[in-house]
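Recap quiz, item 2
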Amino acid sequence: MLYREAGQFKTSYQSDGQILPIRQDRVALLALLLVAVVAVPLLASPYLLSAILIPFLIFALAALGLNILTGYAGQLSLGTAAFMAVGAYASFNFVARIPGIPLLLAFVLGGLCAALVGIAFGLPSLRIRGFYLAAATLATQFFVIWCLTKIPYLTNHSSSGVVTVQTMQVFGYKFVTPGAKYLLVLGIVALMALLAKNMIRSNVGRSWMAIRDMDMAAEVIGFRPLRTKLLAFAVSSFYCGVAGALYAFAYLGTVEPEAYSLDLSFRILFMVIIGGVGSILGSFLGAAFIVLLPIFLNMLAHGLGLATNYASNLELMVFGGLIIFFLIVEPHGLARLWQIGKEKLRLWPFPH
Amino acid sequence: MEMMQPPTVPGTGRRIGEVILDLKNISLAFGGVKALTDISFDVRQHEIRAIIGPNGAGKSSMLNVINGVYRPQHGEIVLRGARRTNMDCYSAAKAGIARTFQNIALFKGMTVLDNIMTGRNLKMKTNFLQQAFYLGAARREEIAHREKAEAIIDFLEIQAIRKTPVGRLPYGLQKRVELGRALAAEPEILLLDEPMAGMNVEEKQDMCRFILDVNDQFGTTIVLIEHDMGVVMDISDRVVVLDYGKKIGDGTPDEVRTNENVIKAYLGQAHDGANGETQA
Amino acid sequence: MSFFIEVLLGGLLSGVMYALVAIGFVLIYKASGVFNFAQGAMVFFAALTCVGFVDKFGVSLWLAIPLTILVMIALALAIERVVLRPLVNQPEITLFMATIGLAFFIEGLAQLLWGSQVRKLDLPIEDVPNEYLMEHFNILVSQFDMTAAVVCAVLVVALALLFTKTRVGRALRAVADDHQAALAVGIPLQRIWVVVWSVAGLVALVAGLLWGARNGVQFALTFIALKALPVLILGGFTSIPGAIVGGLIIGASEKLAEVYIGPMVGGGIEGWFPYVLALLFLLVRPEGLFGEKIIRRI
């Protein structure tokens, strides 16, 4: 009843091509943004902000990056965390070595460094595909992390290998409170999500999907496989790099190699799989799921009186089990379930 | 829609132009297998040229050579007077050659509209950053190309399915969408690899109509591979016949139909009733 | 010079251990087209179960091993039923991601059942230098490593015989070639898969016991599976001899690189060298030394 498109006619290609063609969707998103920007910082507890919302946004950004590479361009990657690490270390170095550099510029530069690394390690993708490429991305993961631990210049010659990051400030305003950090992260992530959506529905996005679906035919049409794949690696790594920088600056407060281990790469991959491969909404849904699940399991374990190591093993089993479950039941993940829900909502309360 | 000078053929009002594509002594081999041996023929502008022959004769390989997918070991390709033997797919596409495939090569993950929009790829000028911000130039370009794509959708009468993912469409419609994607590039030469395979009589008639319209209204030169003899004899201006990678016939449909070699190899004896192929 | 030979031999022998893990991958890939990311987890699970039987139930090692084999068969049955059967026609990449999920599941299960402390595994082979080689050639090579090599050779011969001489082996090869065709001639696909995954489980057990005896049975065992990936890349995903050759190359080059190049750059090369080596190799030969060339028809 509420969710009908009846009467919403599009009279121009411009309006037909909107991101949210249905008015109810636009209203809903506006409401969500209002809540996110106004209500949440006022009402949410610092714990909710720092331990749930901020990591959710950061991981969603990283999952978005991985989705661009794996979901839209079809290049399987297990090296996400390495690109995040490059972004983090690079941003840290820019802030530390160029006094007065705007923070956002440092993030962008960090992302660009990650993009360069992405291009370098994406070069093999012209010759290699499928799991071979996945194995090659493992090379990226291990090698990059090794480099970051071994080159003292990158950690500003810190003796422990772990550096505390500087406080974030933009135009002199210091982002110290969880609420402030949250808003900064929200702004960055929202903007980048919009850019991603625009790219996906333009020629760039189509070029990625064409290479993913049928690269031979894509070549015949005039898409250039190497350029397209490298661009996917570059954009994806940029996103992961910025996410990594945010991870260090807005969440961990430190820059350390252990935080960007293979384990993180897998977590982001799970977010993409569970949320929905090839879907921007899916990246957010998957990130929310993976962030909330351990908390939920912990509460469950506590409620049942189990020891904490039970909870962490249970977490592994549930993760693994859910991956398998989603791949069997709904390979397109939560995003498709969401779409199906919306379809049903259009008919509600009628059965068909 | 672009209207080029309508071509006329003597007797029917269609004009056929100069030689636009000349293939000289093309030989192609894969390892030990000789796919094409010393094939030479030409294609004139605005004509409909058919390539026929039994299965395995090398017809698809021939198209792949024209298109830059395979590089022939010997021989020359002369396109509009310029030697282009070392063409790759990209150069062929830029040179105005588009094609469809025998086993449909649509992008299954995208909608009909998106598939046709991919055909506009070479005409798009904005880069990914402009597209990311989607202001000004990128927005205008997307809308302009959308208009062109919609014109093709109108031409092929597939408006109702424009937002459907192509994977869900029946075979005949997929073939039509593939034609649309090829047309979106506004090609000068269109290569069609068995565009009517697997279609029923009505679908074939529709596809024939579209092919003739494309040739008529847009002036596109068409090279097509087809097994249905009725269609071939009906719509093509000239025919090349291949058998085991060699050329055994070349000429108008009537000339080819009476060529002894062709009859022996392919069409079958007249009194046999042929191999189920219709004899127009 | 003898130091070089020592390092080389040490590397070759650890390569044999990698090859053992890789053989499990190859088996499953050959027979079901699935790249089993969970092989490492299976190695860990098998080793942990065996040690668990010995420690928790006081069973002797010689009884624990057959018991573990039964457990691995049960695991294979469960995997076939729950994971493989529902995903039977899905693209390879989906199955691969399912095995990633499976890996996590098995790791969690193993630790849930048997606890997560590091366990010591005592095999009746000692990790001492072989005296003959020590005396005659002045080379330090561990007895243990040599036994591992022998075990590997025996296993490979046994598998080769299984594949070529028995009916089951022939069926496995048929399934590897073409699922549909195998079904069409009446080969019971699902039973074959249980057989394959059980054999892979057995191989995982052997690998787990050897690795566990050497390094202790701990979670890090799962990372050995990751090392098997470069082995497979070099040797091809479908060839058992390839897995062995690949394992030897990876093991040897890894150790040599660590010893000779490592000190120049601060050490720790072992962690990434095999992967980078495999990556460079892929650029030259995308299908590995022994793998099948992928032909794509347009």
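Chain C touches chain B at residues 298 (CB under 8 Å).
Residues 2-219 of chain C form one domain.
End of item.
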